[in-house]
């Protein structure tokens, strides 16, 4: 069953310097059981995509065109009441910098209670969710006393895990996880990854979009991978296939330079890739990757490449090398 259908989505930041085309023509489907890892360099539009998919964007970001259908209904056309219901139990987000997302003046137990009340959890389910919060806190390595504390009394790593707990407590059908393990130490990172994997495999969470710089991590957790470059998806397919047989020249460079787990792509210079990521106010003509592409042809600077479906439709690659359905030379 398709939970999300994203169709030619464009979302820009309207700034005094111009329109930052952070998401510029993104399309994909997310099915039940799928974990779509979204990977790319810093500034490629991953977080922007996450905030648009969860309809949590704020000015100066605006959706310019395209649709996001949640179980067939366009989330941008939902009535505020309908949207409120969809949040948390339908599409929930673990935001980037999750450690700062909690109200500092409420105890964690009250944040849990307020979540359940605001989502009109029926009385018979209320006690079950409170108990579930305690059980899941243990899985995340959080001691029982966190519920009696204010967010400001907790360490950054604890606050981040509490936010993950809150974002997942109502068992969303689509979880958008934006760098959920950034700033956590390696041991806690493992707990969080295991926690999210368990929720998906037991069916508590139906699907996930997992945003990260860490391509090794994306390989571990995802069923499918989407590679973003300059606001667009340049390659998408089953995780193992993309990792073992990358088709787009950008994916090839990313994968041949897999940093150690936990290292951000942006921090380790992507070797074999000349230049810097382009401006998204005036991106390069034709294929946005052409100025840095080791395999660029004449047409690449003149015309935007088509999206070509390979491997019986399982792989989508937006690149002139595959135009006509052929393999790259
Ligand atoms: N509030 C904002 N106003 C203007 N431009 C913005 C704003 N937030 C992000 N951008 C720009 O939008 C583009 C995409 O940023 P985004 O944060 O979505 O990328 P990202 O791939 O998630 O990178 P990172 O992982 O470093 O957050 C970048 O060019 C960024 O500078």
- Terminal Cα span: 37 Å
Ligand kinds:
adenosine-5'-triphosphate
**Superfamily at the CATH H level of the domain at 1-78 and 223-258 and 275-328?**
P-loop containing nucleotide triphosphate hydrolases
> Which H/E pattern describes the elements?
EEEHEEHEHHHEHEHEEHHEE
Rg value: 20 Å
Highest-level CATH class of the domain at 1-78 and 223-258 and 275-328: Alpha Beta
How would you explain this protein's 3D organization?
- This protein has 329 residues and is an alpha/beta fold.
- It has a domain at 1-78 and 223-258 and 275-328: Rossmann fold.
- The chain contains nine helices and twelve strands.
- The protein has helices at 46-53, 80-89, 108-118, 123-139, 156-168, 186-201, 215-221, 239-244, 249-256, and strands at 2-15, 18-31, 35-39, 61-70, 73-74, 91-94, 174-178, 207-212, 224-229, 232-238, 307-310, 315-318.
- It has an eight-stranded mixed sheet with strand order 6-7-8-3-9-10-12-11, with helices on both faces. It has a four-stranded antiparallel sheet with strand order 2-1-4-5, with helices on one face.
- Adenosine-5'-triphosphate (ATP) binds at residues 13, 15, 20, 22, 40, 42-48, 60, 213, 280.
- One of its GO terms (biological process) is peptide transport.
- Residues 4-255 form the ABC transporter domain.
